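Quarterly update from the structural biology core.
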Amino acid sequence: MLRYALIFFIVALVAAVFGFTGIAAGAASIARILFFIFIVLFLLSLIGGYTFGKEKS
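Predicted structure, tokenized:
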């Protein structure tokens, strides 16, 4: 998911350089959404691994 966020970010940068502001804004918003979804899933996996990964002796 982080890979797709980076791809959309690069597309937004290239579109901004060439003056396609609408496409750049759309790609940047998609990249932002994907990045925040990645962060939420990453934090949930960290919390879940910490909580359920402990062995009870």
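Residues 21-52 form the longest helix (32 residues).
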